[in-house]
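Narrative of activities, Objective 1.

The group set out to show that a structural description can be obtained from nothing but a protein's sequence at a throughput compatible with the screening campaign. Below is one input-output pair from the validation batch, recorded exactly as produced.
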Amino acid sequence: MSGGEEKYDEVDYWSQVKLEIVREYLGAYSTIISAQRKPAFSHVYVDAFSGPGVSISKTSGEFILGSLLNALEVKPPFREFYFIDMDGDKAAQLTELCKERDDVHVLEGDCNERLLEDVFPHLRYDDYRRAVCLLDPYGMDVHWDVVQYAGQMRSIELFLNFPTMDINRNALLTDPGKITTSGTERMTAFWGDDSWRSRFYEEKPTLFDPMEEKEAGNLEVVNAYRERLKEVAEFEYVPEGMPMRNRKNAVIYYLLFASQKPVAKKIVMDIFKKWESKREL
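Output recorded for this entry:
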């Protein structure tokens, strides 16, 4: 890990809402899991894009506790925590912040690799291990094989940032001829295969050669991904996502949740409903 100046991300109102949603759910989840005795479970919180643990509010300029610090404060506590960040400086800040805690594991690197190699193998269903994993990237940075692996493990619940804005800017363009090779590759890795192209584009006859046209809006795309979470990744419950908007009220991403338990779905839907109606913290 490298040293350097401290780095803090600036977050807007809806990012703060997301933090509150996750914090509330973690409290309810930990209460339920901690009460289990026959058998007893060991539960873990995983933050795959953790950052340094603190952010700055764009509106107030104040420091905001990140999801991982909120998780560390949950009562009853989780048994273990895995925090991952690609940025060596941020990982170093986090290591320093948590140096007194032997229940925290800070990992530097690509979360797609670290989750599959260093985290998920410790969360096996048959070992009575359970986990909540937050996948909160800025764009299409989570690979489908990670999501599918988590679902098929049956021990992991996911919060996932579905990056609508990044998808629209780099993969689902009105003119598919303008999609770059990088955009295509990122979308395919995020989606899991290239079926997204035939799903969201349709060939239209023209005077000369057929031309592809985009035939899907944001809701159709996110709901198709929810279908994949259920049918391919084998999560039992995937409620409707909560839209997160910018100051112009445009949806920049959807916060999705996936679980194997009906009670988890109910809790999240109640929390989504509560926060969707709010306009200020």
